[in-house]
Amino acid sequence: MLTKRIEQLKDFFFDRHHHSVRRTPEELGLDRLCDRFAADKVPAQMRGAILFEEMTKAEKPVIFDGELIVATRTITRVPSYFTEAEWEEIKSKHYLHENGFLSNISANYKDALAEGLEARKQRFEARKASADAEGKLFLESAVRSIAALQGLIAKYEACAREMGDSALAEVLASIRTEGAKGFREALQLLRFIHFGLWESGCYHNTLGRFDQYMYPYYKKDVESGRISKDEAWELLLSFFLACNKDSDLYPGMQQGDNGQSLVLGGRDEKGNTLFNELSAMCLEASYDLNLIDPKINLRVDRNTPLEIYKLGARLTKRGLGFPQYDNDDVVVPGLIRKGYSPEDANDYVVAACWEFIIPGKAMDIVNIGALSFAGLVSKSVDRLGQYKDFESYYASVDADIKEECKAIAAQYKNLYIAPAPLYSVFMDGTLERARDITLGAKYNNFGIHGTGIATAADSLAAIEKYVFDEKSVSVKDLQAALDANFEGWDELWHKLRFEAPKMGNDDDYADKLAQRLLASFDEGLAPLRNERGGCFRAGTGTAMYYIFHATCLKATPDGRKAGEVIPANYSPSMYTKHKGPVSVLKSFSKGDLARTINGGPLTIELDDTIFRNEENLEKLAMLIRSYVQLGGHQLQLNTLNKETLFDAKAHPEKHRNLIVRVWGWSGYFVELDECYQDHIINRIKFAV
Amino acid sequence: MSKGTIFSIEEFAINDGPGIRTTVFLKGCPLRCAWCHNPEGLSPKPQIFHAMDGDEICGREVEAKDLAADLLKNREFFEMNGGGVTFTGGEPTMQADFLCEVMDLLPGVHKAIETSGYCKPEVFKKILDRLDLVLFDIKHTDPEQHRRWTGVDNAPILANLQTLKLSGKPFVIRVPLIPGVNDSLENMEATRDLVKDAPGLQRLELLRYHKTAGAKYPKVDMEYSPAFDTDAEPAVHDIFGNIKLLIL
To answer: What does the pLDDT read at residue A653?
Structure first.
């Protein structure tokens, strides 16, 4: 249950009272720092540190009534430390991922919380003596960044003292220099580090295995009686709530797409279950707060007790679109297969949406590109007449996928990521290497999404069955019908759309083709290396490409008409009434999903009316567990109510707090662009 | 090998027995309950259904062995989750031979039926022998009222209920709670007294009437005009004592 304090704060933030303290970089004269940098020829590495210094200096410490965990953004935007001309120059020579700044990796919070800022700063300082010139520059930028963060904490400390909150002031005084002494200190230090990552211009800043690195502090404090369980509960709520204060300022494709993923449970290298008391509290805190952040992932495996699935299912019922369930039995071996050490693989966390990443050790770019299965299959129809049997036709599709893999991989040359000195401080090996994290880490792999798998598999199934096996549809007719967008081809359209085998019906006819497509994808990426020596990881996610890839896709042989959407992530097509969730789970757990270890969840919509009693919650838990036991890699369940969605589209003002899962993240429905709203409404048509 | 007519197979049917189950809807029902929410299950024959995306045929003939094979595909899933198969309708006992044949082809699978109990005693016994669980409706205890609201006499139902009680098989009693029809204290007490001492009784479920019951009537060209107040809230009486109660 929420405490009174938390309820009041939640209302306060929800009514956006804290927005009144916000200023723009323009008002603060921070927007043109880049001109000074350019004039003084300040190296990019140092600009990151100086900008962060200036931002933290300009920050105004604000402590709202009742806040236990503080730090609120008062500056609306982090300006670039490059001028437009410089940025154009960089762009002309380099490949930039998204906005060019560091995103979507996971820091080593565990060590940072234990060591503390001062000791770490001194280690970076000491390393200068033996570093080369570039190294010295990096280390100096790191030291200045830490000092800036400490300066911000000091300002908050003074503010707390002024307000007479000596307990808070003590916490802040302690974490400015030392490692976390207890649960409150650990949460507050984490808040400042996380705050700093955003304020230094990095984005999609994840939270990693929160229940693992926080648990020792919780346990020690509660066992020693330093704090009570009730106090710990309120602190946890405070931290979760804090993740929502500034999230509308975080960059993303849509509001809510901010990558504040938090991972619970899982196991260690020996296979011991790590789900603990704090993990359960996190699920409950998320349920009680009913907010979009942090976005919860629950690591499970075939041995996870049903009770834990039930705790997850309870949160699923809440309708926030999380937790997302990640299957260690598939993910860990899949990561090892791609070269991650067993120890690191067991420590995986989840990046912004679903992509698996190793905290502290990976500079992977897990969402660098996407391969459109549906697009490739669609194009192959034009040459269908050349093949005498399905196998020779599929061989050509296989070759196309592999060519496309090469072409995609070839795009990412001369990668440039703007230096991120503060983030570097919290990543492993940057000190030893004396190099910014953006230049590389232990793992430097790239992830490629695979979109429209069901559309592609269903299309191939229709071609195999009707063109090659039954010979009931001629190549010419199929091509003509697709060219005409099925105008005048009603009968053929009906057959393809409603009668052909579909992925999601536990029908090997279509499911096998999906497995072959994924295998081709994985094989196509296997030999490729990026310029950092990293590999490419195949995935089953779509991100926003389910909108992009569908708009330029003509009618497809599965009976989908031009302009109709393709499913988000690893999901069945959206206009077919499938046999039901059991068949969907079976279809989508077939094959070796460890091969598509970039991730991308099977997504199922549930109508909220199914949760009428406790028994049904247990059945949902069983359903989730079954997917894991059958070998599925990742599952996302959305609990929605049709009427509510329709009403929210018509009357957004009445549904400001309606939360939906979009692709790999949850956001407020009324804040979404219409195409995303419509996709969600479309999906619910086939809800269980 | 006999054929039957079904109108739906629903996976993950969460209100039809334990665990993860598949429910098969058999077409045709001898009752005409005023509150029926599955009008497409009344006629034993396939019929036109005006669906969202155009007309479709509701109901299809299927051979017992094909249906059984289809259901057995998810056997592993049932076993993993203490589930099985539930037959409902319409009224599944109306197609007793077909039903028995399908059940005989599902050895080792937990089998349940949802029934009005309205069938001949020998038919009921034959089906009961093959079942692991019975979900048995009691719509009204008074013969006159029963006839008025469902179109049939309740004597065969009460006789079959007696058979069920004596068999010792696990069963669940389901009572659709219809405002002003069967929600009186008197009828609820009579319902309770019919089953309270039966060793096989697992629980009693009260299924509250919902206005959406009428939603599908236009889709099968029927009119929904029940003679009770569809806006009223049914009364729930706290009289069930030790009987495990579930209100849905």
So the answer is: 78
* Phi-psi sector, A404: left (phi>0), alpha (psi -120 to 50), beta: alpha
Q: Give the per-residue SS3 of A564-590.
A: CCCCCCCCCCCCCCCCCHHHHHHHCCC
B15, B74, B248: residue with CB nearest A582: B74
Q: Please tell me which residue, A654 or A257, carries the higher pLDDT value.
A: A257
Of chain A, the percentage scoring pLDDT greater than 70 comes to 99
CATH assignment of B3-247?
3.20.20.70
Question: Which residues from chain B sit within 8 angstroms of residue A626, using beta carbons?
Answer: 20, 77, 80-81
Residue B44: its pLDDT value, please? 97
Determine, for residues B9 and A629 on separate chains, whether the beta-carbon distance falls below 8 Å: no
Could you read off the pLDDT of A374-387 as tens digits, one per residue? 999 999 999 999 99
Averaged pLDDT of chain A: 94
Tell which A residues from 553 to 582 touch B, by Cβ distance under 8 Å.
579-582
Helices B121-128 and B155-167, axial angle in degrees (round to 10): 30
pLDDT higher than threshold 70 for residue B146: yes
- Two structure tokens written together for B64: 């017992």
Q: What is the reported pLDDT for A687?
A: 60
Sign of the torsion formed by the C-alpha atoms of A74, A75, A77 and A78: negative
Distance of CA B50 to the CA centre of its chain: 24
Separation between Cα atoms, residue B95 and residue B104, nearest integer Å? 14
User: Touching check for A83 and chain B: CB below 8 Å?
Assistant: no
Partner-chain contact B80 A622, CB within 8 Å: yes
Higher confidence at residue A668 or residue A116?
A: A116
Q: Do B14 and A626 touch (CB under 8 A)?
A: no
**ipTM of predicted assembly, 2 dp:** 0.93
Can you tell me the mean pLDDT for A450-461?
Answer: 96
What is the reported pLDDT for A688?
53
pLDDT at position A650 is: 85
Residue B111: closest CA among B21, B172, B204 = B21
- Work out the end-to-end distance of chain A between its first and last CA atoms, rounded to an integer number of angstroms: 29
Q: Which residues of A touch B248 (CB under 8 A)?
A: 612-613
Which segments of A381-484 does DSSP mark as H helices, in order?
390-410, 421-425, 430-433, 453-462, 475-483
Provide residues of B within 8 Å CB-CB of chain A. Answer: 9-12, 14-15, 19-20, 22, 52, 73-74, 77, 80-83, 246, 248
Distance between CA B45 and CA A268 in Å, rounded?
58
CB within 8 A of A653, min separation 6: which ones? Answer: A670
E strand or H helix that includes residue A277: helix A277-289
pLDDT of residue A587: 97
What's residue A685's pLDDT? 60
Please state the separation of Cα A612 from the chain's center in Å.
Answer: 31
B52 vs A487 pLDDT, higher one: A487
- Please tell me the distance in Å from B166's CA to the nearest CA on chain A: 28
Q: What would the pLDDT profile of A431-448 be if each residue is shown by its tens digit?
A: 999 999 999 999 999 999
d(CA A262, CA A254): 19
Rounded CA separation A565/A674 (Å): 13
Which residue, A240, A198, A234, is CA-closest to A59?
A198
Residues 6+ apart with CB under 8 A from A157: A169, A172, A173, A176
**Could you tell me if A624 and A302 are in contact, meaning their C-beta atoms sit under 8 angstroms apart?**
no
> Higher pLDDT residue, A566 or A280?
A280
- The nearest CA of chain A is from the CA of B77 a distance in Å of 7
Spatial contact of A514 and A464, defined as CB atoms under 8 Å apart: no
Amino acid letter, residue B38:
N
Q: Is the pLDDT of residue A221 over 90?
A: yes
What residues contact A93, with CB distance under 8 A and at least 6 apart? A414, A416
CA A96 to mean position of chain CA atoms: 19
